[in-house]
TrEMBL record:
This is Isoprenyl transferase. Binds 2 magnesium ions per subunit. Mg(2+) binds at D18, E205. The active site is at D18, N66 (proton acceptor). HAMAP family: ISPT (MF_01139). Transmembrane segments: none annotated. Substrate binds at residues 19-23, 31, 35, 63-65, 67, 69, 186, 192-194. GO terms for biological process: polyprenol biosynthetic process. It comes from the Bacteria. Homodimer. Its EC number is 2.5.1.-. Keywords: Magnesium, Metal-binding, Transferase.
Amino acid sequence: MNDKEIENIPRHIAIIMDGNGRWAQAKKRPRIMGHQQGAKVVEKISRECAHLGVEQLTLYTFSEENWQRPVDEVQYLMNLLKRFLRKERKNLVENNIRFCAIGDLERLPKDVQHELQKSIDVSYNNDGMKLCLALSYGSRSEIVDATKKIAAQVAKGEINIEDINHQLFAQNLYQPNMQDPDLLIRTGGDMRVSNFLLWQISYSELWVTHTMWPDFAKEDLLQAIQSYSTRERRFGKISAQVKENHRKIIPG
C-alpha cells in the first residue's frame, strides 16, 4: 500500500503510543531502550503525517498517571523529552510543522518547559501540520479544569448558566481551537482509551493494532488511514442507505 491509494486522509489523527516497555522487555533490554526507539518513531511518523497532508497529529506522550512510575524512569523520560525537542526543531522547520503541547505543563521540570516554549516559538509562523504533544495530560483533569474556568466566569457575572453549551465548554479546554480527532490509533493491542481526549474523541474512528509503538512504521500508519477511509462516519445519524431502505419499506 502507498499513500497515493488513499483518498480520504483524516484531518486530525490522535495516537496512544503504547508498548515501549513491553517491546524492550520482549527483547530483554532495559525499558529505556523502548523509550529511545519510541522517540525515533515519533520523528518518522510526524514527518509522514505532514507529507500526507494531515492537519494535526496529537500524541499521548506522557500521561498524568505516568508520574507514578519509578523516579529514575520519570527522570529519564524528561531528559529524553528535552533531547527530542532540541532535535525535532530542525524537523519542524524543514517540514513546516507548527508545534504545541497540552496538559498540566506547569508540573513539568522548568528546563523541559523552557525547551517546549522554544519549540513553540521557533515554529509559530509555520502553517503546515500542527504537532501536539499531550504531556502530564489527563482528560478527566482537563474536563474538571474547564468546568472550574466556566464556574469562575459565572461567579464573576461574565456569563450566565444558560450560556453554557458544547461550544463554550470546548473553548475552555487546554487547546480551544483543536478540531476533534477523526482517527484515534492505539498501538500495543489494549482496547481502551486511557483517559485521553475523552471530550474530543466522542465520534472519532478507532483503530487498534497489536504492533508496539517502537515497531510502528509507515505501513502501519497507512493501514490505519486506509481503514478509516473506507468507513462511513454517521455521528449518530442514520446512513443514507438505511434511510433509503427505510423509505422503501415504509413509503412516506
